[in-house]
Protein: Cytochrome bc1 complex cytochrome c subunit
Organism: Streptomyces carminius
Amino acid sequence: MKKLSARRRHPLAALVVLLFALAATGGLYAAFAPADEAKADTTSAQSLAIEEGKKLYATGCSSCHGTGGQGTSDGPSLVGVGAAAVDFQVGTGRMPAQSPGAQAPKKPQVYTQAQIDQLAAYIASLGPGPSIPTEEEYDPSGADTARGGELFRTNCAQCHNFTGEGGALTHGKYAPELDGVSDKHIYEAMLTGPQNMPAFPDSVLPEEEKREIIAYVNEVQGEDAESPGGFGLGGYGPVAEGMFAWAIVLTLLIGVAVWVAARTAKARKS
């Protein structure tokens, strides 16, 4: 006890206790405070994005979709469509719509990407829905292109044709051409099902299969894409191209054969 009391009365005892307390406080702060601050900063940034998105929505979207996204006779409800739907529709310029019609066409985007993110944050706050995919989710690097072709022909070719050239639907609607569409927007279209397209959530079409389809579309589209069979005939597929061969080419060949036979018979008579 006397030794302990002597140590307590040592001139450096107070300094040692102070240093120990500072070290303990710093360690606790380093362990807990940064995470809390980061979370607070993220929450603050998200709230600010939602607030700014709400202002953009009130100016450019509420006249058709309602003041709270509930929808009107001029536009569907946006509650629960998710941020991915906003990123696709606004990022491809389809929204805001220029005029009523059977389908909103692709056009130059009106908003910057930062504004699109703010609009998406506000719409996402109205109800749960698909979020904007990360680059890792939609990057087709290393994906199986052949498998993607099988998936595309099974799920997409009925409307977009075999090479993504697009095609007409009913009542003035159409499946758009896929040439020049970004990987992210193709992924978002499959995820959300814009306009006349059915949605393919991950429960129906997993991420890996979406990437394979994107890889196939990139392979058959673009400047380097070539048709191994010659003229592609619009990419309508083997049935349409086969019908063209039989109905047009074969008819021409028969006509040429008849003409040659007639000329030969006439020459013999002469």
Q: What stands out?
A: The first helix runs from residue 2 to 8.
